[in-house]
């Protein structure tokens, strides 16, 4: 069996760090173009045009498109048949090294500090940083590594709803949250909005963040009723009168993605996450032998990832 060379994992991790910081994914660019066509606010249209000019300049000059490069993190999808030179701990080691190297070389802003002592190693690496989340895929011998550079301060909220709150309660939470984000400058819109619904509290938060950061603009949940709710909440978010950088307009939400998990019978936890207007993500697939393919669609939410099938029933 051919093993995936660990040096290729490090090479790919560094490259996607660079791509995520500099190049805006095409799906988000197209989403912004559609929003621009419908935008009703004059100042908002001006800001959206300035955003696009900034993206073009960053790509041409090969430098980060935003001074705040967020808090880089990784999502790793491992094929069930994959074999990695030196094992899985070696992957985490080279992901941390690639982060430190990229912070200096690209450069990324060194945003990571100790929460109490404010110790800063100037490389975005420290205790539990960068985060690495894992999932698996059957019948595959490759590994996918995705990096996401998301702001780490605001743009996230959580609430414990109850089953009786229903869809109307979800809508109220989404409206309340987006209005507060817009009024207080807690989101960097136009944004992809991710909603986690159900699960335990930590699962709910993870699902919402992944929905915002790991699905592309235009991608719909496979459940048609959830897909319809995604579109309804997108339209609702764009009806509150806020747009780019808080100016009056109609482009608060570029797209809305919902991910769900089975939850406790007595509750309906919900989280909301706004990816910033950079929408910085990039993915590399490393094959046995070391071939690397790059893309901007993480392809994270596969049928296996959602585990939709119930394969057994209680008698």
TrEMBL record:
Lyase is among the record's keywords:
yes
Molecular function as annotated in GO:
4 iron, 4 sulfur cluster binding; lyase activity; metal ion binding
Q: In its keyword annotation, does this UniProt entry include Zinc-finger?
A: no
Secretion signal span: none
**InterPro entries per UniProt:** Class-I_Fumarase/Tartrate_DH (IPR051208), Fe-S_hydro-lyase_TtdA-typ_cat (IPR004646)
Its keywords, alphabetically, are: 4Fe-4S, Iron, Iron-sulfur, Lyase, Metal-binding
List, for all copies, the residue spans of the domain called Fe-S hydro-lyase tartrate dehydratase alpha-type catalytic: 11-284
Q: Show the PANTHER family listed in the entry.
A: FUMARATE HYDRATASE-RELATED, L(+)-TARTRATE DEHYDRATASE SUBUNIT ALPHA-RELATED
**What is stated as this protein's family in its record?**
Belongs to the class-I fumarase family.
- In Swiss-Prot or TrEMBL terms, this protein is called Fumarate hydratase
Q: What is the lineage of its organism?
A: Bacteria, Pseudomonadati, Pseudomonadota, Betaproteobacteria, Burkholderiales
